[in-house]
Each structure stands twice: as C-alpha cells, then as structure tokens.
Amino acid sequence: MAITIRSLIASDWPAIKDIYQQGIDTGDATYETQAPETEVLKGKFLSEPQLVAVDNGQIIGWAMLSAVSSRCVYGGVAETSIYVHSGFHGRGVGRALLSSLVPLSEKLGFWTLQAQIFPENKASIALHEQQGFRRIGYREKLGKRNGIWRDVLFLERRSLVAGND
C-alpha cells in the first residue's frame, strides 16, 4: 500500500462524507448519528489544512481542523478530526494523516491542537499520543449519543514552533 497525502479537492467530499459515516457507525467516533449534508459538513471545518489519504486513486482517510471558538484570542487553537475508511484501519493511514496535519497546522500559526475522544476509541487515543498529544482531562458525561451519556478524554498538543513568540 502506497499512501499519498494531499490537499482535499471539491470532488473528494462524497468520499469524505462516506468515511465520516463509517466512523459514526462505529458508535465510538463522534456524538453524531448521521453524517450531515455535504454543505453542512464543509461548514464544520476550517478551510485549511484539509487533507486526504489516497491509495491507488481511492480516498481512504481524511484529516481536518475545526475552530474551538470564534473569539480571536483562540485563533491558534483547533480541534482535530481524523477518519479512516473501515477497510484500511491499522495500516498507518491515521498516522500518515496526523503526522502531516501537525506541521501544516504549525505553519498556519496554530499553537494548540486538541482532541476529544471517547475512552473506548483506544486506536485514536494511541494515535494522538504517538503524535505528541497528552491527556489533560477526562470529561464525565459530556454529552449523550443515542440517549446514553458518554465520557470523553481531552487531549492536547502544544506546538514547539507556533505561538512561542
């Protein structure tokens, strides 16, 4: 498998939505229960960086950032979203995406990346920790998914480059 990481293009959105739905269907990736329409999905994320992982012309994963606040003082803080096609789990796709996303975020001036991950999603926790994220909190019963309260681990990665001036 030869994974290529590239910037997202408009024609990638159907595959992104499909992979997002696959993550939703696991029950351990997000509070969402249904992928929103493409225009709504686009609006959830910052315009850059937006990355896709491609293998033999097929989009097999994606990574994007979302703003944590509209307040200007938090302009350098973003939340990660990384999703991998269900047929490609455990093959380094997430690692390739996150290891590309982090330096791009720093070039764009982000000094903190954060992730909120269900404790049951051990693969995502391990992935983020391998990329320098650390656990900074445990949020008990943060929200409900399908009527069931879910806890969330809160992780962050502080840049060694951006925001140190």
Note poorly predicted spans.
none
Q: Roughly what fraction of the amino acids lie in strands? A: 25-35%
- Computed Rg: 15 Å
Number of strands: 7
Going across the biggest sheet, name each strand in turn: 1-2-3-4-5-7-6
Roughly how many Å apart are the termini? 41 Å
Structural class: alpha+beta
Question: pLDDT average, as an integer?
Answer: 94
**Portion of residues within helices:** 25-40%
Write down the overall geometry: globular
What's the topology here?
Elements: E1 4-7, H1 13-26, H2 38-43, E2 50-55, E3 58-67, E4 77-84, H3 93-107, E5 112-117, H4 122-130, E6 134-145, E7 148-158
Parallel strand pairs: 4-5
Antiparallel strand pairs: 1-2, 2-3, 3-4, 5-7, 6-7
Would you write up a description of this structure?
By secondary structure, the chain is of the alpha+beta class. Helices cover 27% and strands 35% of the residues.
